[in-house]
Amino acid sequence: MNEQQQVKTGTTTVGVVCKGAVVLGAERKATMGYLVTNKSARKIMKLDNHVGMTIAGMVGDAQALHRYIKAELRLYSLQEERKINIKTAASLIANILYSRRMFPYIVQLIVGGYDTKPGLFSFDPSGSMMEEKEYFSSGSGSLTAFGVLEDKFKEGMEVEEAKTLAARAISAATKRDIASGGSGIDLVVIDSRGFHEVPEEEVKKLIK
């Protein structure tokens, strides 16, 4: 078993752009090869009051990146005396990843947030950044999640519809991807009021 297999997470995460918000979602299983090491792993990270990030890949790399990015966004807000807009935050994250391209962070990230409008971006370990106008999924269960997203997504969805879509896309992946699952699904809504976690009981109702 190589080092990446020892500390990686089998994962399904999604991001959905909807009317006035971005919805981020992730399941909770963390794996070490064929061993489930944690059934309640947190894979959605708050970067600022208006920016969130989902993680897939090596846990240590993801945690280090979270600390690094969060500190950089805080420095920006102190220096500029205003919160960073989503595209600038995404460019900063891409630059951090690109600077380590020879010894990369083994992660796949989705970053979503809201400034004057919702924004969603995807990243690979080399620092490649893509703006996603509708939705994106990362991790080992993403193929299954993409099938649900492509079938059910519609432009201009309301927040409640997007929450349901994200939850059901992840739920479908947990049924078909051996490395995805755990003790539930986390959902976050980021809108003009900030970063909001969806209560677990509500998530269960959305899936049903």
Model description:
This protein has six helices and 13 strands. The protein is of the alpha+beta class and 208 residues long. Helix 4 runs antiparallel to helix 5.
Q: Could you outline the blueprint of secondary structure elements for this entry?
A:
Elements: H1 3-7, E1 8-9, E2 13-18, E3 21-27, E4 30-32, E5 35-38, E6 44-48, E7 51-58, H2 59-80, H3 86-99, E8 107-114, E9 118-123, E10 129-131, E11 135-138, H4 142-152, H5 159-176, E12 185-191, E13 194-197, H6 200-207
Antiparallel strand pairs: 1-7, 2-3, 2-11, 3-12, 4-5, 6-7, 7-8, 8-9, 9-10, 12-13
Query: What is the strand tally?
Result: 13
CATH domain fold name: Glutamine Phosphoribosylpyrophosphate, subunit 1, domain 1
The CATH class turns out to be Alpha Beta
Give the biggest beta sheet: 6 strands, antiparallel
The fraction of residues assigned to DSSP E strands is: 25-35%
Give the name of the CATH architecture.
Answer: 4-Layer Sandwich
Report how far apart the termini are. Answer: 38 Å
Overall geometry comes to globular
The topology string of helices and strands comes to HEEEEEEEHHEEEEHHEEH
Report a brief summary of the structure.
Helices cover 38% and strands 32% of the residues. By secondary structure, it is α+β, with helices and mostly antiparallel strands. It has a single domain, classed as Glutamine Phosphoribosylpyrophosphate, subunit 1, domain 1 (4-Layer Sandwich), CATH 3.60.20.
